[in-house]
Amino acid sequence: MDANALLEKIKKKIEEFNANDVAREGCEPSLHPSAILIPLVVINGELKIIFTRRSSALERHQGQVSFPGGLVELGDKSPIETALRETCEEINIRYSQIEVLGALHTYKSHSGYCIFPVVGFIHNLNGLQRNGEVERIFFVPYHWLVNPKHSALLDFQTTEGITRKVWFFDEYEGELLWGITADITKIFIGLIEN
Q1: CA distance 28 to 15
Q2: What are 53's strand-pairing partners?
């Protein structure tokens, strides 16, 4: 399937999902509300998802692969605004370059975050540049992520000694996509492909 047909399929699936999603749940007061953008882009005729590797100097989740995003701030009118603001800050994409396609269900993490995943299409990469929170920006082809050979649900032991199943993708260009970001990626792919 070519990139434009795939993008139309994604738009349709997200639109149908959001139309049927009348009971979107909110965040529990004990969780930190946050939002991320799943940024889609077409490069050389291929649909890709933009990921970042967080700076090793950050206080939380240092050096991990993630989507652009962060905590909801007081001035943010909605989680969508949070996702867009954080994306613009972290990878220097302007609001006008992002077409919001919809959102997934709120994701509650074991680490105490309530994450609102927003899906957006980046119309062009003009000005793309990382800020101090980001060590690297990279692009993973959608068809690579969809291939079940590239991911597995594995046991992971937390620092507290708790073992639970966590999604891991194979390394891609030296980057390891796992945990919450991998889980949200799998949820997104599952929505589109089912």
Answers
A1: 26
A2: 65, 136
